[in-house]
Amino acid sequence: MKKIVAVFVLVIGLVFFSGCLSTPVVRESAEGTLHSHFEYSVGWSPSQGCYERVTGYVYNAGNTTFDAVQLNLNLVTRDTGTIRDSQSIFIGPVGAGESRAYETRLDGECTRGYRVDFAFGK
Length: 122
Description:
The chain is mainly beta. It contains 1 helix and 7 strands, in the order αβββββββ.
């Protein structure tokens, strides 16, 4: 029983001190009347390890409908500037005054610092 408790405490300590848990970073991006508000934070799971969880919404502040909105997200290593993971998310049509929510995960490593770069797809 003492060994199980010791292993459990060790695992918890490694997770908290490995850099895998952080406060969310909130960002805003716009292209014309199309806006995206998103936040990302580091998460951890036994099956996936460390990852960046990205949640947000796209908002159309204009008077016309966008027929095919796509988002391109890159997980970039802060110290080297290299892309660790990328993902494109198809949002679909976004009418005037409408918003659409999205959520995704980008694969990372526990010992690295990352930022999420965002762009609207064409």
